[in-house]
Amino acid sequence: MVREVLVGLGSCGIAAGARVVHDALIAEIKAKGLKIPVISTGCIGACHREPLMEVRLVNGEHFLYGDLDEQGAKQVLAAHLAGEAPVEEHLIPEDYGYLAHQKKIALANCGVIDPESIDDYLAAEGYSALRSAVQEMSRQEVVEEIKKSGMRGRGGAGFPTGLKWGFAAAAPGKKKYLVCNADEGDPGAFMDRSVLEGDPHAVLEGMAIGAYAIGADEGYIYVRAEYPLAIRRLGIAISQAEEKGLLGNNILASDFSFQVHLKEGAGAFVCGEETALMASVEGKRGMPRIRPPFPAQRGLWDAPTNINNVETLANIPPIIRMGGEQYAQVGTEKSKGTKVFALAGKIKRGGMVEVPMGVTLRKVIFDIGGGILADKKFKAVQLGGPSGGCIPESLLDVQVDYDSLTATGAIMGSGGMVVMDESTCMVDVAAYFLGFTQNESCGKCTFCRVGTRRMLEILERITGGLGEMADLERLEELSAKIKVSSLCALGQTAPNPVLTTLKYFRSEYEEHIKNKRCPALQCKALIKYQVVADKCTGCTLCARVCPVKAIEGERKEIHTIDQELCVQCGLCFEACRFQAIEITTGE
Amino acid sequence: MNNSLATALINIQLNGRKLLVTPEATILEVAEEHAIDIPTLCHDPRLEAYGSCWVCMVKVEDARGFMPACATKVQPGMRITTDSADIRSARKMALELLLSNHYGDCKPPCTLTCPSNIDVQGYIGLIANKKYREALELIKKDNPLPSVCGRVCPRPCEDACRRNLVDEAVGIDWLKRYVADLDLFSDSGFDPVLALKNGKGVAIVGAGPAGLSAAYYLVQQGVAVTIFEAEQKTGGMLRYGIPDFRLPQATLDLEINTILRLGVELKSGLRLGDNLELADLSRDYHAVLLAMGAWKSRSLRVEGEKLPGVLSGIDFLKEIAEGKEVVLGKRIAVIGGGNTAIDAARTSLRLGAGEVYLFYRRTRNEMPAASIEIDEAIDEGVKIFYLVAPVSIQGSDQGLAAIRLIKMELGEPDSSGRRRPIPVEGSEFDQPIDNVIAAIGQYSETRYLENIDGLLDERGYLVCNEESGETAIPGLFAAGDLVTGPDIAIQAIAGGKYAASSIMVYLEGRNRQPAKEFLSRKDDFGEVTAEELKDEPRILREKMAMIDPEKRQTSFNELEQGYSREQALREADRCMECGCHDVHECKLKEQAQDYGAIASRFLGEIQRHPIDESHPYIIRDPAKCILCGRCIRICLEVQGIGALGYIYRGFKSEVAPSFNVPFGEDEFCISCGQCISTCPVGALTEKYPEGKTVPLEERVEEDFCTLCSVACALEYRYHGTLLTRVKERSAPGGGLAGGGFTGGGRLCRKGRFEHTFLNEPIAANPLLPDGREISISEAGELVKKYISETDKGLMRISPYLSGETIDLFLELAEKYGMAVEAAGLQELDKSWAELPATGGNSGYLFEALDYGPEERALILAGNLEESNNVAFTEALSMHKKHGWQLWGVSRRDKLYDRFFSRLIPDPDELVEMFKSEAGKKRRLDLLINPEEFVKASGRSQEKRLLGTLLKTGEQVCTTLFWNSRNAGCLLRSLAVKKFAQGKQDYDLLIAVGADSDTSRDTFQETSKEPFKGRVIELGRKATGSGLFIPLPLPLWLQGYTEPSGRTPFRTGVVDTGILAGLFKA
Q1: Which of A103, A405, B295, B1024 has its CA 20 to 30 A from that of B935?
Q2: B550 pLDDT band (50/70/90 cuts)?
Q3: pTM of this prediction?
Q4: Would you call B54 an interface residue with chain A, using a CB distance cutoff of 8 Å?
Q5: pLDDT, tens digit, for every residue of A172-192?
Q6: What is the dihedral of CA B351, B356, B360, B363, to 10 degrees?
Q7: Would you call B502 an interface residue with chain A, using a CB distance cutoff of 8 Å?
Q8: How far is the C-alpha of B926 from the C-alpha of B888, rounded, in Å?
């Protein structure tokens, strides 16, 4: 007997069509006159198989299904209603590599509970950590517990959370703030969004515990306006918690009060930097300022302020529940617990993954991610978004922990993990990420504002076939100085993608410059599309798709491409059914 | 700073030195205190630390990366390094990155193109401001022969003039001639100040433009100069190579005399290698400059060129100049395309030749002669044939018969960059002629230098550094055509100038010349296009008056007649001022120079924003902006206004007025110009409503502003007699005079922009009420008459006068028993002077800072925001800092409404409020300008308010502000005298005819009949109500004290001569 059905309605699921599946299931159940609840939940994790649904039986068995559409969902439902065997076609087995190698702490409730129901959260031990903190622990004890856990900030820099709380707790001042940084901006990263959409109460509970620990009575969640679903669910969660006396005045009948406000950011990447974030919360232009004074001394409206990332806060309730020591059992010596990654790029199984610190990149990419799409050759993995770097195949056995990753020139970052195959041009990748940071620079300090722009221009010269060898030295010199002479982390880390690609893929740069070749056949200025004469059948398809009429040829005769007109769009290459178009590079 | 325990000092190490410093200080402040220079662009001591430019970066041990010194506070045990190779290289890169998006010209193209780099924009600006003498002096810093150049220069400056992209180049050369002639033909021509003789002697060989120029600059620096000239007369090629109709010899003589009269010794008729030996000169003088020019004509190298009737161009011109008779035939062939060829052709015409042909082997495009000279030659009838070259000359019994020519065509460019002419085979033709004048080039005679090792190269040319004039022989220098080959006059003049400076370096035993000046140039980023200047209004160039063409053929009289004054002023106004207004103070330029930055190192995209000239007082050139944010911050943090902000992000960031409107339409801007004062580059500069705002070397005269009683500390910036700018006062040794002075580094619109009246002339003599001028002694007679009579009349003293001057006149009035009146304040109730808080002429203080936000209110009355703006902005910052409320009374301008938490439109309410509010607040501060209050609210309100104020207790503290610096001071003096001595003669604001016994209560609402009789007005402008005595600037400019330890230019001594003339008792 089917007890309930869950449908993953994170943004990822909805984008893949889960809303249709969800509505179809409700209609179907209603049509059959049944009363089986269809629960909407957050991201279930296996984003590459969306839409996802889970069927839970009364006997406790549960089955996860993926790649669904309306028909598939109905088919699965019908099979279970009829008591038949699971539908193999859609079934995701329990030993599915993607799920089997994960360890869920921060994401424990994601895809499991209904994020819009506080009762679901309470049923999953929700707010019990807050209760024990407020009712059984002193503020100092809470800080100590977090210190014991070895928790480090999941926003990217990895600063020990307990230490940070300790500073804010010790700072003099009657008024203090606790801020949740939900300004997730790295391209390809969606960890925070998934947590906020899938388990908003965990973040609120983490905030309340933190506020209690440092003595704050007011908090802000600074969340990107581009996350409407997260904002909606947070709004719901806040009112639910307030209703139950878990937020607001005299929480759990104690003298601890904590008000939480939602502040929507306008999507400036730099507002993820804490001083810029605070300026933005205060209604000013989001520009970082020099530290010290650190926010713990002078933060929002000059009051001591503590800022933590979403994932960090989602880890707080489990830490209090299981105890810091227990939490510290997971992970490596210096990096405790788990880390959530958004696995993306040229990978077979992409999506949200949570792994214990210390696993190797190879394990994440090949065992969990299932390897490279179309079994192409792995080339690099980009970690840490625009502030991070590219790690080559030779370093795939490096452990996922703060210090090992930093040693490679990349960083842990907030959890973006973009896998690249041999068709990726590393110069182009560097230009892409630098283009991003360059665009997102707030414009305040010289090196970031002008320096990254000049670096980007050099990269564009190289991919455009106009580079010279001295450009590599210029890039290195600019990178070195930008890293040490920028006001905030955005500028300080902006050269990382360039530096790591220069370090691990220098020959690719040199090919572009010396031989005017793009080995990955990506840089338009360096490649040519040509007709392979003995394969061309004269079918005229290429000529018909060419948007600039650069291809000529009579039917049944060999076609030619006018290189003067060709804009290297690649449509002919994709259209040709005889592999009669080849891409060449170099002079 | 915290006044209790914060004084506990901490230990740090700065560049290895152990220091004890105050903990709240930044690294920059500590370094400054210990005379360690750290450059910065984004920091201003008036502002909170910001850290955007990253030029001030230093190394702090154990810190990640560099730290900005401006924003990093010292910590115990901190070890700081402020200078090292990697710090320097990082600072250099910061500057280069900023420069890579800094689109502007430090100096204008005209100046940079001129071989002598004359400050063209400067002198044209001075002309536009009617400062002709200053313009001439500025020109002479780089060119001692401006009248000559104003006539003969081919004007590379005008070719470079950006106005060519709009309509036509500015008439730079003719403007130069205008001021130069004004001086040359005046009775009191300009002579530069000469340094004391330094005991050094320099011999100059050649009295041409190079030698004369070097002599001019050397003699100014204390050198005894002797010029040796081979010819009988001075001037060299200027005299012998340029015909009279272009440069009259009389004019040349006059101008050369301006150099010789400085004490330059001239020895004529001595020719080197002939009757003058270089060895003797080297022995007798500390240094020798060779400037003999290039007098040898190049040979035509054609058959027949030795025939009689074939002349050399330069010899021909020289003989004419010497007044010798030269007999020419009727048909003249001139060969060549330079100025000598053209001059020879035009001279031939004037000697009566019927046909003058000029044969040139290339086309007009390649012709080296000045275009305007070619045009004039054609106008006069010279026939020019292009693409022909001589092959041979045929003689006849009477002289010459014909010249055989061959046609040419142009091939590939040669080493000179011009296309090489190639003969067209078989195209020879004959042209009958009577004379040939060959002017195809000249070179220097150097045979007599052959015996000196290393001086000549194998071809016989002098080996010499073209920039410095140094030869291989120490102490032997060269300049002019001898170095450059035949070139234009200004090139030789420049050579002389630079050689003079090299000679000084040599004579003083210094090592080398100062480093090359850093210059940012638009051209580094690509060509400037007409598109960039499309909004510039088209104004045609002033035409030069010329003598009639029909008279020219027979006359050697000067052709060009010069500009009139009106023409000069109109033409000067056409200058677009391409050079940066901030060139003399730009921090970016200074630091780029210090760090050897290269502006073009990081070429890339550049923001070419148009210049915003919409604001009445401020020019905003966002293309020069380096995004340091100082203007934004000073407008908000110091002024409290917030008229500027950032728009866009990243590389595209811009500073822009509110809502990105044109600056002139920014409704928040109060035109205080504080943004200009803090801008480290030329992105924000002053625009004065009259004349042109010109970047010039300035003399600083420290003073206090006279335009209201806040009396801000300021600097009058002068160039000569031109008040160029007014700035807030800087502290000695750099930085800004902040806290110690009133104003605290602030200035308002009036102070900064409304002092231009100082450029207006002051009446030279006393004036009668009907406007008639009389002499000082006549005025003295009148004064004598007044004070001898029973009704001695009235002395009306301007409150704009300096304190010392006011005191002096008060004493005189007392001595002679005259009544005194404060000009402009007659209508005011005298009781204002009795208010206890009128402590001085300015002193307003927000003491007692420990009041809480709710305990104190600042009430601003009498249009204080406009009339005493700095007091308003200071009150505003007190409001922001301490939370005290700001209330406004009887204001007129809505611009300021938003700053007041309470508006009190009716002054009656204010009176009521003092009764009610005083009980609620611990303190009410009334800041009021009585002059404006009376104007706006009338005398009955004034009386009510005064009555209330006189009765209020200590809770209400009144501070008075006035529309002039010393009104309060003057009133107080009068009041003190009256009340202390009971002398009715000093009755405050006496109205003549009124009973001098009148108590203050009897003042009437109606104004009194103006006093027509014996009034002595002392001030700046006559009002026509009595005998007006104009007082010269010094009497109303200086303040009471020597402000900063630097000596003010105008000392406060009253010219007792004037007084003696007036008050001879």
Answers
A1: B1024
A2: confident
A3: 0.90
A4: yes
A5: 999 999 999 999 988 888 899
A6: 110
A7: no
A8: 10
Q: Closest by alpha carbon to A340, among A138, A549, A156?
A: A156
- Which residues share a beta bridge with B392? B303, B404
The secondary structure of B936-971 as a DSSP string is: HHHHHHHHHHHHHHHH--TTEEEEE--SSTTHHHHH
What pLDDT is attached to residue B980? Answer: 45
More confident of the two residues B568 and B1020: B568
CB atoms A290 and B49 under 8 Å: yes
B407, amino acid identity: K
3-state secondary structure of A264: strand
CA distance B651 to chain A (A): 5
CB contact under 8 A, B54 and A451: no
Hey, CA dihedral for A144, A145, A146, A147, is it positive or negative? positive
Task: Check CB contact under 8 Å for A440 and B649.
Answer: yes
Distance in angstroms (rounded) separating the CA atoms of residues B931 and B709? 12
Q: What is the mean pLDDT of chain B?
A: 86
Reported ipTM:
0.92
Check: CB of residue B1043 under 8 Å from CB of residue B760.
no
Query: How many C-beta neighbours within 10 Å does residue A127 have?
Result: 25
Q: Which residues pair with B229 in a beta bridge?
A: B268
Q: How many CB pairs under 8 A join A and B?
A: 101
Segment B558-585 mean pLDDT: 94
> What is the rounded CA–CA span in Å between residue B562 and residue B376?
16
Q: What is the pLDDT of residue B541?
A: 96
Q: Side chain identity at B158, as an amino acid letter? A: E
Task: State the Cα–Cα distance between residues A64 and A56, nearest whole angstrom.
Answer: 9
For A44-88, the DSSP string reads -S-GGG-S-EEEEETTS-EEEE-S--HHHHHHHHHHHHTT----T
Question: In the structure encoding, which two tokens stand for residue B501, read together?
Answer: 């400076």
Residue matched to tokens 């007699």: B721
- Chain B interface includes A464 (CB < 8 A): no
Q: Please state at what angle helix B120-128 crosses helix B565-573, rounded to 10 degrees.
A: 120
From first CA to last CA, the distance across chain B in angstroms is 59
The DSSP secondary-structure symbol of B1021 reads: S
User: CA-nearest residue of chain B to A459?
Assistant: B604
- Whether A439 and B650 lie within 8 Å, measured CB to CB: yes
Q: Do A443 and B68 touch (CB under 8 A)?
A: no
Q: A290, B72: Cβ pair inside 8 Å?
A: yes
- Chain A contact present for B488, CB below 8 A: no
For chain A, say whether B101 makes contact (Cβ under 8 Å). yes
d(CA B918, CA B913): 7
Q: Please give the angle made by the CA atoms of B985, B988 and B994, to the nearest 5 degrees.
A: 70
How many Å lie between the alpha carbon of B94 and the closest alpha carbon of chain A? 6
User: Domains of chain A (ranges plus CATH)?
Assistant: 2-94 (3.40.30.10), 118-327 (3.40.50.11540), 338-421 (3.10.20.600), 426-514 (1.20.1440.230), 524-585 (3.30.70.20)
Q: Buried b vs exposed e over A151-166: b needs ≥16 C-beta within 10 Å?
A: bbbbbbbbebbbebbb
CA dist., res. B429 & res. B958, Å (int) = 101
B521 CB-near residues (< 8 Å, 6+ apart): B105, B106, B112, B599
Are A223 and A214 in contact, with CB atoms under 8 Å apart?
Answer: no
* Helix and strand counts by DSSP (H, E) for chain A: 25, 18
Whole-number Å distance between alpha carbons of B396 and B966? 93
Euclidean distance between the first and the last CA atom of chain A, given in angstroms as a whole number: 69
Q: Which residue of B has its CA nearest to A447?
A: B94
Name which of B65, B93, B602 is nearest A492 (Cβ-Cβ).
B65
* Bridge partner residues of B619 (DSSP): B685
Average pLDDT over residues B782-800: 79
Mutate to test the interface with B, among A450, A479, A487, A496 (most CBs of B within 10 A): A450
